[in-house]
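Entry 12.
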Amino acid sequence: MTALPSGFRFSQAALQDYVDCPRRFHLRYVRQVAWPAVTATPAAEWERHLANGAAFHRLVQQHLLGIPAERLSHTIADDDLRRWWRNYLTGGPRGLPETRYPETVLSAPLGGYRLVAKYDLVAVAAGERAVIVDWKTARRRPRREHLARRLQTRVYPYLLVRAGAHLGGGQPFAPEQVEMVYWFADFPGQEERFAYDEERYLADEAYLADLVQEITARADDFPLTEETARCRHCPYRSLCRRGERAGPFAELAAEVEGETDFDLILDIEQIAELAF
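Predicted 3D structure (C-alpha coordinates):
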Protein backbone atom coordinates (compact mmCIF):
# COMPACT_ATOMS: atom_id res chain seq x y z
CA MET A 1 0.00 0.00 0.00
CA THR A 2 1.16 3.52 -0.76
CA ALA A 3 2.13 5.42 2.38
CA LEU A 4 0.76 8.87 1.56
CA PRO A 5 1.73 11.71 3.92
CA SER A 6 -0.53 12.30 6.91
CA GLY A 7 -3.48 14.49 5.98
CA PHE A 8 -2.82 14.08 2.25
CA ARG A 9 -5.54 15.50 -0.02
CA PHE A 10 -6.03 14.67 -3.68
CA SER A 11 -6.34 17.63 -6.06
CA GLN A 12 -6.80 17.70 -9.80
CA ALA A 13 -3.10 18.60 -10.14
CA ALA A 14 -2.01 15.58 -8.06
CA LEU A 15 -4.28 13.24 -9.99
CA GLN A 16 -3.09 14.72 -13.29
CA ASP A 17 0.52 14.15 -12.27
CA TYR A 18 -0.28 10.49 -11.61
CA VAL A 19 -2.07 10.03 -14.92
CA ASP A 20 0.75 11.78 -16.81
CA CYS A 21 3.58 10.01 -14.97
CA PRO A 22 3.17 7.80 -11.88
CA ARG A 23 6.83 8.36 -10.97
CA ARG A 24 6.33 12.12 -10.87
CA PHE A 25 3.38 11.67 -8.52
CA HIS A 26 5.48 9.42 -6.27
CA LEU A 27 8.40 11.83 -6.17
CA ARG A 28 6.28 14.93 -5.61
CA TYR A 29 3.57 13.74 -3.25
CA VAL A 30 4.77 10.52 -1.58
CA ARG A 31 8.49 11.13 -1.19
CA GLN A 32 7.99 14.93 -1.28
CA VAL A 33 11.25 15.44 -3.16
CA ALA A 34 12.15 19.09 -3.74
CA TRP A 35 14.31 18.92 -6.86
CA PRO A 36 16.18 22.11 -7.89
CA ALA A 37 15.31 22.17 -11.58
CA VAL A 38 13.30 24.62 -13.65
CA THR A 39 10.32 23.69 -15.77
CA ALA A 40 11.28 25.67 -18.88
CA THR A 41 14.07 27.81 -20.30
CA PRO A 42 14.95 30.58 -20.24
CA ALA A 43 14.21 30.29 -16.52
CA ALA A 44 13.75 34.03 -15.98
CA GLU A 45 11.08 34.21 -18.68
CA TRP A 46 9.24 31.21 -17.23
CA GLU A 47 9.37 32.62 -13.70
CA ARG A 48 8.07 35.99 -14.91
CA HIS A 49 5.20 34.23 -16.64
CA LEU A 50 4.32 32.34 -13.45
CA ALA A 51 4.47 35.54 -11.41
CA ASN A 52 2.22 37.31 -13.92
CA GLY A 53 -0.24 34.43 -13.84
CA ALA A 54 -0.50 34.62 -10.06
CA ALA A 55 -0.81 38.42 -10.23
CA PHE A 56 -3.61 38.17 -12.80
CA HIS A 57 -5.57 35.81 -10.57
CA ARG A 58 -5.19 38.25 -7.66
CA LEU A 59 -6.32 41.20 -9.80
CA VAL A 60 -9.46 39.40 -10.94
CA GLN A 61 -10.23 38.25 -7.40
CA GLN A 62 -9.89 41.80 -6.08
CA HIS A 63 -12.08 43.14 -8.87
CA LEU A 64 -14.77 40.55 -8.18
CA LEU A 65 -14.66 41.52 -4.50
CA GLY A 66 -15.48 45.10 -5.42
CA ILE A 67 -12.20 46.99 -5.85
CA PRO A 68 -12.62 49.42 -8.78
CA ALA A 69 -10.91 48.40 -12.02
CA GLU A 70 -9.29 51.83 -12.42
CA ARG A 71 -7.61 51.56 -9.05
CA LEU A 72 -6.29 48.08 -9.84
CA SER A 73 -5.07 49.17 -13.28
CA HIS A 74 -2.66 51.65 -11.67
CA THR A 75 -0.85 48.78 -9.93
CA ILE A 76 0.16 47.02 -13.18
CA ALA A 77 3.67 47.56 -14.57
CA ASP A 78 4.20 44.47 -16.77
CA ASP A 79 3.07 44.62 -20.42
CA ASP A 80 1.77 41.04 -20.55
CA LEU A 81 -0.18 41.48 -17.34
CA ARG A 82 -1.58 44.79 -18.58
CA ARG A 83 -2.77 43.11 -21.81
CA TRP A 84 -4.45 40.25 -19.93
CA TRP A 85 -6.15 42.70 -17.59
CA ARG A 86 -7.42 44.79 -20.49
CA ASN A 87 -8.73 41.65 -22.21
CA TYR A 88 -10.53 40.65 -19.02
CA LEU A 89 -12.16 44.05 -18.62
CA THR A 90 -13.29 44.29 -22.24
CA GLY A 91 -13.80 40.64 -23.19
CA GLY A 92 -14.37 38.66 -20.02
CA PRO A 93 -16.92 35.83 -19.93
CA ARG A 94 -20.45 37.09 -20.51
CA GLY A 95 -23.81 36.00 -19.21
CA LEU A 96 -22.60 34.81 -15.82
CA PRO A 97 -25.04 34.60 -12.90
CA GLU A 98 -24.91 37.62 -10.62
CA THR A 99 -23.79 35.92 -7.39
CA ARG A 100 -20.02 35.45 -7.56
CA TYR A 101 -17.70 33.39 -5.36
CA PRO A 102 -14.05 34.01 -6.31
CA GLU A 103 -11.21 31.82 -5.03
CA THR A 104 -13.57 29.28 -3.47
CA VAL A 105 -12.29 26.00 -2.03
CA LEU A 106 -14.42 22.86 -1.83
CA SER A 107 -13.66 19.44 -0.38
CA ALA A 108 -15.38 16.07 -0.14
CA PRO A 109 -14.39 12.54 0.94
CA LEU A 110 -13.16 10.17 -1.74
CA GLY A 111 -11.78 6.68 -1.19
CA GLY A 112 -10.76 7.29 2.41
CA TYR A 113 -9.05 10.58 1.56
CA ARG A 114 -10.30 14.02 0.61
CA LEU A 115 -10.68 15.50 -2.83
CA VAL A 116 -10.10 19.26 -2.89
CA ALA A 117 -10.26 22.00 -5.49
CA LYS A 118 -9.71 25.72 -5.49
CA TYR A 119 -12.01 27.45 -7.98
CA ASP A 120 -11.06 30.74 -9.61
CA LEU A 121 -14.73 31.66 -9.75
CA VAL A 122 -18.13 30.06 -9.20
CA ALA A 123 -21.03 32.18 -10.45
CA VAL A 124 -24.42 31.08 -9.12
CA ALA A 125 -28.11 31.61 -9.73
CA ALA A 126 -29.58 29.74 -6.77
CA GLY A 127 -31.86 26.91 -7.83
CA GLU A 128 -31.06 27.45 -11.51
CA ARG A 129 -27.43 27.07 -12.50
CA ALA A 130 -23.78 27.37 -11.48
CA VAL A 131 -20.94 28.34 -13.80
CA ILE A 132 -17.33 27.46 -12.98
CA VAL A 133 -14.85 29.87 -14.55
CA ASP A 134 -11.15 29.08 -14.73
CA TRP A 135 -8.70 31.78 -15.84
CA LYS A 136 -5.92 30.51 -18.11
CA THR A 137 -2.85 32.58 -18.94
CA ALA A 138 -1.12 30.13 -21.30
CA ARG A 139 0.60 31.67 -24.31
CA ARG A 140 -0.81 28.92 -26.51
CA ARG A 141 -4.50 28.16 -26.50
CA PRO A 142 -5.18 24.49 -25.60
CA ARG A 143 -7.30 22.44 -27.98
CA ARG A 144 -10.75 21.52 -26.76
CA GLU A 145 -10.03 17.78 -26.90
CA HIS A 146 -7.01 18.26 -24.64
CA LEU A 147 -9.03 20.24 -22.13
CA ALA A 148 -11.74 17.57 -22.20
CA ARG A 149 -9.16 14.97 -21.15
CA ARG A 150 -7.67 17.01 -18.32
CA LEU A 151 -8.58 16.00 -14.78
CA GLN A 152 -9.60 19.56 -14.00
CA THR A 153 -12.53 19.26 -16.41
CA ARG A 154 -13.72 16.20 -14.50
CA VAL A 155 -12.87 17.13 -10.91
CA TYR A 156 -14.27 20.67 -10.77
CA PRO A 157 -17.87 20.02 -11.91
CA TYR A 158 -18.00 16.75 -9.97
CA LEU A 159 -16.87 18.36 -6.72
CA LEU A 160 -19.23 21.31 -7.13
CA VAL A 161 -22.15 18.88 -7.33
CA ARG A 162 -20.82 16.93 -4.34
CA ALA A 163 -19.85 19.77 -2.04
CA GLY A 164 -21.26 23.06 -3.35
CA ALA A 165 -24.75 23.09 -1.84
CA HIS A 166 -23.94 26.00 0.49
CA LEU A 167 -23.17 28.15 -2.57
CA GLY A 168 -26.73 27.63 -3.76
CA GLY A 169 -28.44 28.49 -0.50
CA GLY A 170 -28.30 24.96 0.88
CA GLN A 171 -29.75 23.23 -2.20
CA PRO A 172 -27.32 20.88 -4.01
CA PHE A 173 -26.77 21.56 -7.68
CA ALA A 174 -28.01 18.97 -10.13
CA PRO A 175 -25.28 17.98 -12.61
CA GLU A 176 -27.33 19.48 -15.46
CA GLN A 177 -27.20 22.86 -13.72
CA VAL A 178 -23.38 22.99 -13.80
CA GLU A 179 -21.19 24.34 -16.58
CA MET A 180 -17.39 24.74 -16.75
CA VAL A 181 -15.83 27.63 -18.67
CA TYR A 182 -12.15 28.09 -19.50
CA TRP A 183 -11.35 31.72 -20.27
CA PHE A 184 -8.00 32.50 -21.93
CA ALA A 185 -6.35 35.81 -21.07
CA ASP A 186 -4.56 36.02 -24.43
CA PHE A 187 -7.58 34.81 -26.42
CA PRO A 188 -10.65 36.75 -25.22
CA GLY A 189 -13.87 35.68 -26.84
CA GLN A 190 -12.53 32.16 -27.43
CA GLU A 191 -13.45 30.49 -24.17
CA GLU A 192 -14.28 26.79 -24.03
CA ARG A 193 -17.49 25.67 -22.36
CA PHE A 194 -18.25 22.20 -21.04
CA ALA A 195 -21.77 21.23 -20.06
CA TYR A 196 -22.34 18.64 -17.34
CA ASP A 197 -25.01 16.01 -16.76
CA GLU A 198 -25.92 13.01 -14.60
CA GLU A 199 -24.18 10.52 -16.88
CA ARG A 200 -20.89 12.44 -16.71
CA TYR A 201 -21.25 12.88 -12.96
CA LEU A 202 -21.64 9.15 -12.35
CA ALA A 203 -18.79 8.34 -14.75
CA ASP A 204 -16.52 10.87 -13.03
CA GLU A 205 -17.38 9.54 -9.59
CA ALA A 206 -16.50 5.98 -10.63
CA TYR A 207 -13.34 7.05 -12.46
CA LEU A 208 -12.01 9.21 -9.63
CA ALA A 209 -12.75 6.55 -6.98
CA ASP A 210 -10.98 3.91 -9.10
CA LEU A 211 -8.02 6.24 -9.65
CA VAL A 212 -7.58 6.87 -5.92
CA GLN A 213 -7.90 3.16 -5.21
CA GLU A 214 -5.28 2.38 -7.87
CA ILE A 215 -2.86 4.91 -6.40
CA THR A 216 -3.28 3.81 -2.80
CA ALA A 217 -3.01 0.11 -3.71
CA ARG A 218 0.49 0.58 -5.14
CA ALA A 219 3.60 -0.17 -3.12
CA ASP A 220 6.67 1.47 -4.66
CA ASP A 221 5.90 0.47 -8.24
CA PHE A 222 5.39 3.93 -9.76
CA PRO A 223 6.77 3.61 -13.29
CA LEU A 224 8.11 6.38 -15.47
CA THR A 225 5.88 7.60 -18.25
CA GLU A 226 6.47 6.07 -21.66
CA GLU A 227 5.72 9.44 -23.29
CA THR A 228 9.21 10.87 -22.93
CA ALA A 229 8.21 14.22 -24.47
CA ARG A 230 6.55 15.01 -21.13
CA CYS A 231 9.94 14.80 -19.43
CA ARG A 232 11.27 17.89 -21.22
CA HIS A 233 9.30 20.16 -18.92
CA CYS A 234 9.35 18.06 -15.77
CA PRO A 235 11.56 19.25 -12.89
CA TYR A 236 12.50 15.64 -12.06
CA ARG A 237 13.91 14.83 -15.51
CA SER A 238 17.56 14.71 -14.36
CA LEU A 239 16.69 12.64 -11.28
CA CYS A 240 14.95 10.16 -13.57
CA ARG A 241 17.81 10.33 -16.12
CA ARG A 242 15.50 11.73 -18.76
CA GLY A 243 17.64 14.76 -19.64
CA GLU A 244 19.53 17.55 -17.91
CA ARG A 245 18.20 20.71 -19.58
CA ALA A 246 14.62 21.95 -19.49
CA GLY A 247 12.75 22.32 -22.76
CA PRO A 248 12.13 25.78 -24.22
CA PHE A 249 9.32 27.87 -22.77
CA ALA A 250 8.06 28.47 -26.31
CA GLU A 251 7.45 24.73 -26.75
CA LEU A 252 5.70 24.18 -23.44
CA ALA A 253 2.38 22.46 -24.06
CA ALA A 254 -0.49 24.85 -23.49
CA GLU A 255 -2.45 22.47 -21.28
CA VAL A 256 0.58 22.15 -18.98
CA GLU A 257 1.61 25.79 -19.09
CA GLY A 258 -1.84 26.87 -18.05
CA GLU A 259 -1.85 24.58 -15.02
CA THR A 260 0.39 26.28 -12.54
CA ASP A 261 -0.39 25.04 -9.08
CA PHE A 262 -2.79 27.85 -8.13
CA ASP A 263 -5.29 25.18 -7.09
CA LEU A 264 -2.83 23.84 -4.51
CA ILE A 265 -2.52 27.15 -2.67
CA LEU A 266 -5.16 26.13 -0.17
CA ASP A 267 -6.29 27.96 2.94
CA ILE A 268 -7.64 25.16 5.12
CA GLU A 269 -9.96 27.54 6.96
CA GLN A 270 -11.77 28.23 3.68
CA ILE A 271 -12.49 24.60 2.81
CA ALA A 272 -16.18 23.71 2.83
CA GLU A 273 -16.06 20.09 3.92
CA LEU A 274 -18.44 17.15 3.95
CA ALA A 275 -18.14 14.84 6.93
CA PHE A 276 -16.77 11.33 6.44
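Annotation: Residues 257-276 have pLDDT under 50 and may be disordered. Residues 9-217+225-270 form a domain with the Lambda Exonuclease; Chain A fold (CATH 3.90.320.10).
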